[in-house]
Input
Amino acid sequence: MGSTFANATLLFYPQGDARRRQIALWYFTSLMLLWILGLGHWVLGFEQAWAHPAVSVGTAIAVQMLLEWVDARAKGRPPRFAGGWANFLNFLPPAIIPGMALSMLLFPGEAVLPLAFAAAFAMASKVLFRAPVAPGVTQHIFNPSNIAVVVTLVLFHEVVGLTPPYQFTENVSGLWDWGVPLFVLASGIFLHALFTGRLPLVAAWIVGFLLQGQIRAWAFDIPPLVPILPMTSAAFIIFTLYMIPDPATTPLKRERQILFGLAVAAVYGLLQALHVVYGLFFALVIVCGLRGLFLWLRQLTLLLRQRPLRAV
Output
């Protein structure tokens, strides 16, 4: 008799509610499709080719299906995408979301292979980098989109960069310069307030960002407003509401959320002081990695406590 699939991600949603997770995934997927394909390329002025989201999303879906098929065969259970159209469609959002995000965040010029690599690595990272979160249960520790951005920028630094921040409001003016960030802000707050419970983390990150900015302003004798100017951009709002508070890779308890958000801000401030580029993405990877290390150390400590002492 085959086993069934147990989704560890539910441990990081309020009350372990599978319905909240499903709604959040489809809400986010719909926003990404509207934002990137509907508004981004047609209205706002995104500069990537139409081929970029197609390659990125297609690769992410293909790799996710391959990994799921391998895992299902190894554990003697049916693949999650089998058993009808509903199962297949509900299997897609975890691949569509990072695929669309990577096509929006990375700019490889005319090349498409770096995007294919990024999408494949994002999906593979969910298998490669895991930590124990409950007895007999592991969970991936890195936001797939974020770690894929970092690895791709490092490996393909000669041909890939981040998309220019101005593209998010390039073709709009007047009130729309405020309307676009406000839309992103309102939609993100709605998502986290009703479905993910990550508003404490978001608030801690914002407070931490303000604090590190003022500390750097004092330490390096620069105007106080300069270090916090990134907060006025649509790109910063997207990172704040859709990259950092990933429910699958951040703590659920309020005090741990606050610690996580402050830690990302502190690491970002340190990276900025060291003149490290792409500090937002590197800071999140570093903190997620440290959280994963803590989870493994906690598991090791529990195992050592349970091991009976041997006579010497």
In short: Residues 8-305 form one domain. Residues 279-306 form the longest helix (28 residues).
